[in-house]
């Protein structure tokens, strides 16, 4: 049986004070068996995405310590930022990585929430797979009204917290509320536009996201809402499934972005979201200048993007993993705003064992190791290496010839 591993991706409502951010993130590393993978702050959103991984019990302990420290250092009554939020630790999703199901992960989410409510006095809601009510499955519903609406929301019987106090006391005034979930892997992905207009960015987000936009009479932006027989607004669906999105202006970059959550990349991939956004922007006279990945991404998503753009270029897919990743980075403009280092953004690269293996050696190192007294490689390894060179030469010929007439 595979070792049980889950990933935790808490989003804290602090993106500007590096001392506070580092202090909060560092408590994760005090728990044995938990690896801190990434700390990704945003100044305009005033929000930091923290990612760590480990066995379930250890991850739950690390998450509890992080939420406790965030509540100590962040005062939500003074918080401002572009991103929707209602707590010092705004959301804390748990994601199954290996050896554990989503349903089993939800049990750990409930365990974490109950402890936060009892020991820290922080109220909160369970969403996604951890939700205990259908209407609470969607994070947007749980977070509606944001921090400013908590005083009324917490005493509303329909929105009684799943854990913690149902009152806006002095403790809650500072800590706010926390949403905890068990969910599949999600990619937080922003696309950059050559405009400062939030309205235009939102218009494109509404074109693309699954929820689309509210149908209106006459003017699509300001017209009267069209209601169904139950008095609910009628919606015009967007282009892509499993996509959430909003438009915003990011002051530190001086541009508007469309901020997407890709909730199921087997349904809508990053590269499809990018290309559809390019089409929608072009129709509105705008230009996509690049994109930004928030947090981490699976290797497969990057390789799939590389393959996609290689096909668009009518090039062979028989290139190295590194080359495919370079193609993906440049095609998506992931380095438009800041350098993109695959070793710091791809989950598998962060988790891999750093022990040097034969396949990791340079040609010089391999030759020197072969000449030494080590028995690690002999005739078999040398023969395999020579065979690999032969296959590489054959692949080179195929790649050079594939696009030529007559082949």
From TrEMBL:
Task: Report the subcellular localization.
Answer: Cytoplasm, Cytoskeleton, Microtubule organizing center, Centrosome, Centriole; Golgi apparatus
Q: Where is coiled-coil annotated? A: none
What the entry lists under InterPro entries is as follows:
Cyclodeamin/CycHdrlase, Formiminotransferase_C, Formiminotransferase_C_sf, Formiminotransferase_cat, Formiminotransferase_N, Formiminotransferase_N_sf, FormiminoTrfase_cat_dom_sf, Formintransfe-cycloase-like_sf
Give GO cellular component annotations, separated by semicolons: centriole; Golgi apparatus
Keywords tagged on the record: Cytoplasm, Cytoskeleton, Folate-binding, Golgi apparatus, Histidine metabolism, Lyase, Multifunctional enzyme, Transferase
GO biological process per UniProt: L-histidine catabolic process to glutamate and formamide; L-histidine catabolic process to glutamate and formate
Q: Which residues form the Formiminotransferase N-terminal subdomain domain?
A: 4-184
Task: State whether keyword Iron-sulfur applies.
Answer: no
Which pathway does this chain act in? Amino-acid degradation; L-histidine degradation into L-glutamate; L-glutamate from N-formimidoyl-L-glutamate (transferase route): step 1/1
Which stretches make up the Formiminotransferase C-terminal subdomain domain?
A: 185-350
Recall the GO molecular function terms of this protein's record: folic acid binding; formimidoyltetrahydrofolate cyclodeaminase activity; glutamate formimidoyltransferase activity
Q: Which family does it belong to?
A: In the N-terminal section; belongs to the formiminotransferase family. In the C-terminal section; belongs to the cyclodeaminase/cyclohydrolase family.
What NCBIfam families does the entry give?
FtcD
Assembly, per entry: Homooctamer, including four polyglutamate binding sites. The subunits are arranged as a tetramer of dimers, and form a planar ring-shaped structure.
Name this protein carries in UniProt: Formimidoyltransferase-cyclodeaminase
Q: Which organism is it from?
A: hydrothermal vent metagenome
Classification from the root reads:
unclassified sequences, metagenomes, ecological metagenomes
